[in-house]
């Protein structure tokens, strides 16, 4: 049955319930019954929705959200695929460009080698040509020398000095012959007078036409003899002559004593020339200072000078060609070495990239990537470290190099030492990101020596005041804490006292101190509170809250009273203390948190933090007593007056395991939500009926202001009750999901980590891959 404007309604049976139809027929105009106050309010859902329709709408919204998520995931996968294809195309283009560049470089080097070979061949041809010319010149000189020696000299060329010398030689030969004859006669026992020796006839001057011709050789003085002679003969000295034959009419030699055979005698004061021809050739040597000798010596010197210049030029060409060849060979060798290193580095980086994509961070699971063969090698490690520093190779590929060199270091302690030494010497060349990844990957090693190496690395940079180096020190300290002992707590706390330390180093020192406290035995842990309080005196104000959190890890109940007295003095300090109580390792801080939560004299922010800290303590999975836990946290559940607050409590239980007190607390929240929904249900039904009546009355009299105001008031009450009923339904559904999750979560064997400890997981550090 439909209500229309201006149409009387038909009588309805008394037992039938009237239903409000919001839509009007198409023929009649639709009347909008909305108050002016509600016109600016955004209505998310229709005013009158049954629970079935609401569930259907919620299901449709979830389906639409699911489809949107699936579409977003498909778009993301398509984008990643396109990015991968673009990256593959870029890599292929880079490889093609590198290949073309390598071919061009090889062609250029080959051209240089061919040019050097051509220069060498040309130099050899020039040297052969010069040697041939030199040989021809030498042969020509020797031929000219022989011709000059064989040519006869005319008699007028013999001057008066030569004639006087010849006469003196004849006289000397005559006297020598007489002395020889006397000696022979005396030896034979014959008187000298009885010996008859024919006198040699002295040659007389003959006419020009009948004078005997003497054979004279024209030769230049030997340079070697001239250099050996310490003193040169003066020009006025008698020419050095060597008589090769006895004069005409000399006495014949006796055959009795071969020693008495007359020998050629030289004139007194005359020595034979160094370059004279041997006896038997006939003739005499001309003086060394003649014009022909000087001309020949000058010609020979000129030829030698020319030959020496040619030889020097050829030598220079050979040296230049050799230098060019050596330079080309050296350049080619260097380029071949660089190209070989780059090719090797590229191959290694590709292998390291496979390890990174497989999320392989240690050497124990190399079988997960069967096509990757890791062989520790010092030279390969040096190349990879140079790539990580950005010295060699593509600077964008350093993560792959870091993965591979870290795997090598985990497999071989010598490689590990090489890596650590490189990080010590080049600490400034490693960025914070690279240093963090290298230390993180090295810390995965199971080798006991690695911890000592990390300690050595930490010691090498621990005294630096540079904030960038301190950030790297923080990374090393983060992984060193696993090898530290409780005695090292003092050194860590001194870092928290520094006023010039970097934030990363302070955070790492706090986490290290917290780890040492948590790992200490319970008896020693509580005794650490008094020791920690000693560092409060010189500690910067911003680090005090970290000290409070460390005190909370000790669990010493005596510290709670001290902290409660001090947090009322300052709001900032109170906020730090209330936050630290949320990290208390026992439930002893919960009563103090409840007291602060209920204390209206505190700042609203401090009270809100107290409530959050209660939830943090409650969300830590501990082996608690069921009844004591229910009694302890029952005020928190009882104070949750709204469905939003109860749903917030449920979210704190999702991280807990299957323990009895967790199940009972969730059951308590669900029971409270069901009680509230049951209480709201009759009110909701009554408000719905009252709204129908008010709507009918308003539709019957649209101009009645009282009817309009009554309708708006009934509508507001209806919406509030509907919201409460829907909120409780959400709490019940959330509790059911939480119970399902908790029942599937096994009880941990050790104390669960806090939220901040979970943030310290190694997987969160390796975000640069």
Automatic annotation (TrEMBL):
Low complexity composition bias: residue spans: 271-289
Residue ranges with Basic and acidic residues bias: 63-83, 122-136
Protein's UniProt keywords contain Transmembrane: yes
Keywords associated with the record: Membrane, Transmembrane, Transmembrane helix
TM helices/strands, residue ranges: 309-329
Region (Disordered): 60-83, 112-136, 187-210, 271-296, 744-769
Protein name (record): Uncharacterized protein
UniProt lineage: Bacteria, Pseudomonadati, Verrucomicrobiota, Verrucomicrobiia, Verrucomicrobiales
């Amino acid at each position: 049955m439909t209500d229309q404007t201006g149409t009387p309604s038909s009588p309805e049976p008394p037992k039938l319930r009237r239903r409000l139809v919001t839509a009007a027929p198409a023929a009649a105009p639709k009347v909008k019954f909305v108050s002016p106050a509600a016109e600016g309010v955004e209505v998310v859902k229709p005013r009158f929705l049954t629970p079935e329709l609401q569930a259907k709408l919620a299901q449709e919204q979830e389906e639409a959200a699911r489809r949107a998520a699936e579409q977003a995931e498909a778009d993301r996968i398509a984008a990643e695929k396109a990015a991968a294809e673009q990256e593959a195309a870029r890599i292929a283009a880079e490889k093609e460009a590198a290949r073309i560049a390598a071919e061009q470089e090889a062609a250029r080097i080959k051209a240089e080698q061919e040019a050097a070979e051509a220069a060498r061949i040309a130099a050899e041809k020039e040297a052969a040509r010069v040697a041939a010319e030199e040989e021809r010149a030498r042969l020509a000189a020797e031929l000219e020398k022989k011709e000059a020696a064989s040519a006869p000299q005319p008699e007028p060329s013999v001057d008066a000095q030569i004639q006087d010398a010849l006469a003196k030689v004849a006289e000397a030969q005559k006297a020598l012959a007489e002395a020889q004859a006397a000696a022979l006669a005396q030896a034979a026992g014959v008187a000298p007078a009885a010996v008859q020796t024919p006198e040699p006839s002295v040659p007389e001057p003959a006419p020009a036409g009948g004078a005997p011709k003497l054979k004279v050789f024209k030769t230049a003085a030997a340079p070697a003899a001239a250099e050996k002679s310490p003193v040169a003969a003066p020009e006025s000295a008698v020419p050095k002559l060597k008589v090769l034959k006895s004069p005409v009419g000399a006495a014949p030699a006796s055959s009795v004593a071969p020693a008495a055979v007359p020998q050629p005698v030289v004139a007194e004061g005359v020595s034979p020339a160094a370059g004279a021809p041997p006896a038997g050739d006939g003739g005499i040597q001309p003086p060394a200072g003649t014009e022909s000798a000087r001309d020949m010596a000058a010609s020979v010197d000129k030829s030698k000078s020319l030959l020496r210049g040619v030889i020097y030029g050829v030598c220079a060409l050979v040296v230049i060609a050799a230098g060019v060849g050596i330079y080309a060979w050296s350049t080619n060798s260097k380029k071949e070495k660089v190209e070989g290193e780059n090719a090797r580095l590229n191959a290694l980086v590709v292998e390291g990239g496979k390890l990174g994509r497989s999320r392989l961070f240690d050497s124990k699971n190399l079988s997960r990537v069967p096509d990757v063969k890791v062989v520790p090698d010092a030279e390969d490690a040096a190349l990879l470290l140079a790539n990580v520093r950005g010295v060699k190779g593509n600077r964008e590929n350093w993560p792959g190099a870091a993965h591979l060199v870290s795997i090598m270091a985990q497999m071989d302690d010598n490689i590990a030492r090489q890596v650590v030494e490189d990080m010590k010497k080049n600490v400034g060349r490693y960025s914070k990101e690279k240093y963090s990844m290298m230390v993180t990957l090295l810390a995965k090693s199971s080798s006991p020596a690695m911890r000592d190496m990390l300690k050595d690395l930490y010691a090498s940079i621990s005294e630096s005041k540079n904030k960038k180096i301190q950030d790297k020190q923080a990374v090393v300290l983060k992984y060193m804490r696993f090898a530290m002992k409780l005695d090292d707590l003092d050194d860590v706390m001194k870092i928290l006292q520094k006023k010039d330390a970097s934030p990363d180093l302070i955070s790492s020192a706090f986490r290290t101190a917290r780890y040492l406290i948590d790992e200490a035995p319970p008896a020693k842990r509580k005794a650490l509170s008094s020791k920690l309080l000693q560092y409060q005196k010189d500690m910067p104000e911003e680090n005090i809250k970290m000290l409070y959190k460390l005190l909370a890890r000790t669990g010493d109940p005596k510290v709670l009273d001290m902290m409660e007295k001090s947090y009322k003095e300052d709001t900032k300090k109170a906020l730090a203390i209330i936050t630290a109580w949320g990290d208390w390792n026992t439930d002893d801080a919960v009563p103090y948190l409840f007291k602060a939560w209920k204390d209206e004299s505190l700042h609203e922010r401090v009270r809100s933090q107290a409530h959050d800290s209660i939830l943090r303590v409650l969300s830590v999975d501990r082996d608690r007593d069921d009844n004591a836990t229910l009694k302890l946290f029952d005020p928190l559940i009882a104070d949750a007056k709204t469905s939003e607050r109860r749903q917030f409590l449920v979210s704190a239980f999702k991280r807990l395991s299957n323990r009895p007190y967790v199940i009972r607390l969730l059951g308590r929240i669900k029971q409270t939500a069901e009680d509230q929904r049951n209480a709201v249900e009759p009110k909701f039904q009554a408000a719905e009926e009252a709204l129908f009546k008010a709507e009918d009355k308003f539709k019957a009299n649209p101009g009645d202001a009282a009817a309009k105001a009554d309708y708006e008031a009934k509508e507001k009450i209806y919406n509030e009750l509907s919201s409460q009923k829907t909120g409780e339904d959400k709490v019940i559904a959330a509790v059911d999901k939480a119970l399902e999750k908790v029942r599937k979560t096994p009880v941990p064997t050790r104390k669960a980590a806090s939220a901040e400890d979970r943030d310290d997981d190694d997987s969160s550090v390796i975000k640069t891959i």
